[in-house]
Write a structure and sequence with these properties.
GO cellular component, one term: mitochondrion
Order of helices and strands: EHEHHEEEEEEEEHEHEHEEEH
Helix content: 25-40%
Keywords: Hydrolase
Largest sheet: 7 strands, mixed
Bound molecules: ligand LQR7VSFR
Shape: globular
GO molecular function, one term: omega-amidase activity
CATH topology: Nitrilase/N-carbamoyl-D-aminoacid amidohydrolase
Distance between the termini: 14 Å
Protein name: Omega-amidase nit3
CATH class: Alpha Beta
InterPro entries: C-N_Hydrolase, C-N_Hydrolase_sf, Nit1/2_C-N_Hydrolase
Number of helices: 7
Number of strands: 15
Oligomer: single chain
Length: 292
């Protein structure tokens, strides 16, 4: 697919997520509409935007997305996208598959008419153990997705990942090389242990590996009293990175909306200046763009 030539105004909604799903949906709606009023074409919500992030919460907040009447979050997201007339990368929500009863961490994407374009189920589950700092085991409750995902837009295809997926370069490279993606979007919830070391570095690495834009959207960090009660210490720092690894826009841990313009003429320029797509040595390593 040819590279798009227009500007894409993107907005990252770094919102506070509470234990009240209805409140989270209402806050998301208000912020999606506010972002659209500021000129956003595409709005991104955080990982787990309708539920606290923690294995103890996933089953309680889980909703069906496919194969049955969609849950309240999917209906609400479709309504927001339609009302705001934006592409909506609906963060992620805990999903239950009614046919298998398996749970997933899933990102739904809607077009400006509020139609569900695709869903991405987090492929790499967040299972880590940093002694004395953080232990997290999504696989205790969730199943991994079995597919890589992207969706078509007028600017070109856009790849999807969720948080821990950012650590796996193959996924972004397949999006870029096999599907011609011009950007990768990751709803994410890094934390105060891993965020400072890895979050920006990984985004910049994925961007320069592939000469495309990378956008991430995190929940805002909860207040100190909630952290003291065990709430997940989200790192925040929702960010947009240019194809040559520059931080185009970012923030700290607060409740905010980050706006930026993705310039796909610039992307084409960079790919001409740095022709790494043509310089690969597939005689020495396999071509990840092969097949589809
Ligand atoms: N929350 C995640 O999925 C990932 C994360 O926090 C990390 O990789 O660090």
């Amino acid at each position: 697919m040819p590279l798009g030539s227009k500007l894409l105004n993107i907005a990252l909604v770094q919102m506070r997520v509470t234990a009240n799903k209805a409140t989270n949906l209402q806050v998301a709606r208000d912020k999606v509409l506010a972002a659209a009023r500021q000129g956003a074409d595409m709005v991104v919500l955080p990982e787990c935007f309708n539920s606290p992030y923690g294995v103890q919460h996933f089953a309680k907040y889980a909703e069906a997305i496919k194969g049955t009447e969609p849950g309240e979050s999917i209906k609400a997201l479709a309504g927001m996208a339609r009302e705001a007339q934006v592409y909506l990368v609906g963060g992620s929500i805990p999903e239950v598959d009614p046919t298998t009863s398996k749970h997933y961490n899933t990102c739904p994407v809607f077009n400006r008419e509020g139609e569900l374009l695709t869903t991405h189920r987090k492929v790499h589950l967040f299972d880590i153990d940093v002694p004395g700092k953080i232990t997290f085991r999504e696989s205790a409750v969730l199943s991994p997705g079995e597919h890589l995902s992207h969706f078509a837009t007028e600017w070109g295809p856009i790849g999807l990942g969720i948080c821990y997926d950012l650590r796996f370069p193959e996924m972004a490279m397949i999006a870029a090389r096999r599907h011609g993606c011009v950007a990768m979007v990751y709803p994410a919830a890094f934390n105060t242990t891993t965020g400072p070391t890895f979050f920006e570095l990984l985004q910049r690495a994925r961007a320069v590996d592939n000469l495309f834009y990378v956008a991430t959207c995190s929940p805002a960090r909860p207040p100190a009293e909630e952290l003291a009660q065990g709430s997940y210490p989200a790192w925040g720092h929702s960010t947009i990175i240019s194809p040559i690894g520059e931080v185009v826009a970012t923030c700290d841990a607060e409740d905010t909306i980050v706006h930026a313009q993705l310039d796909f003429d610039k992307l084409a320029e960079y790919r001409t200046s740095y022709p790494i797509y043509q310089q690969r040595r597939f005689d020495l390593y396999p071509d990840v763009a092969e097949g589809s």
